[in-house]
Amino acid sequence: MYFEQTSNIKKHALNLGFFACGVAKSEVLSDDKIHYENYLQRGDHGEMNYLTNYFDKRFNPALVLENTKSVIVVLWDYSMYDPKKTPEGKLAKYACGEDYHIVIKSKLLQLENEIHKLFPQANMRSFVDASPVLEKTWAIKAGVGFRGRNTLLINPTIGSYCNIGVILTDQELAYDTPLEITCGTCSRCLESCPTGALALPYQLNARNCISYYNAEKKRAATFDLHGWAQGCDECQMCCPWNMGTRYEVAGYEVSSKHTPHLEPRNPAPNN
Ligand code: SF4
Ligand code: SF4
């Protein structure tokens, strides 16, 4: 249903500079609710107490926007940013370009305008990062990426250096399906995390994570930050899906574990 309009929405998204756009049918996320409850019970969210807010809304888009039928997901590629070093230390790639919250939000509002031309009656809400919307889950359902063992969304073409934007709408659209791609037998990110924050696949313990510490800075670090002043890209630098991402340009030490240029990105990586 509405194939032509959905195709037009995707074209507008790409014209606005998004790398990818997919659409998922809205539904209650029962499995994610169980995973999220376990995550909170383990205390892996550290001191990010805001992650306990809006609990029910996270798993039911209709509680965020009444009568939500579709979830439109866009990816913003930031892989082109050269990593930088400052006197305080290394900056993760996401911190080396414009503020993605501002850039993506502005483009999502432009996309909403285009959708309104196709569906004048549509109600919509846009989100980037700070929201009760489970962006990674919707991105997977919308077929624009898969979940890596480092817990990040990986797009088969641009890897994990992408931010996610979401538009909820009460308009029915044509839906995509999840990709059939996985990490294969690779486990490099688990081995490369310098602080043991990825002790188990698909589980990030924020209490041990340099990126979390650098973002929150609510307490003194109890572990070595390995020179990172903002964020931490160690579990992405090593990922075979992130080939050609130019850490050498900034003079970063790329250890033997970090050999993203040596392996093919397609098909799914196998060590
Ligand atoms: S961001 Fe850094 S500290 Fe956090 S899980 Fe990845 S490698 Fe480990
Ligand atoms: S490093 Fe390997 S296991 Fe980790 S996210 Fe990338 S492909 Fe998956």
Report on the architecture of this protein.
The chain has 271 residues and is an alpha+beta fold. The chain has two domains: 3-81 and 96-169, no CATH class; 188-262, no CATH class. Helix content is 27%, strand content 15%. The chain contains eight helices and nine strands. It has helices at residues 3-15, 30-42, 55-58, 100-118, 135-141, 188-192, 210-216, 234-237; strands at 20-25, 70-77, 84-86, 89-91, 124-128, 146-147, 153-154, 162-169, 228-230. The strands form three sheets. Strands 1-2-8-5 form a four-stranded antiparallel β-sheet, sandwiched between helices. Strands 3-4-9 form a three-stranded mixed β-sheet. It has a two-stranded antiparallel sheet with strand order 6-7. α1 (3-15) packs antiparallel against α4 (100-118). The protein is globular, with a radius of gyration of 19 Å. Mean pLDDT is 88; it is low at 254-271. Bound molecules: iron/sulfur cluster (2 copies). The site of one iron/sulfur cluster has 11 residues, from α7 and α8.
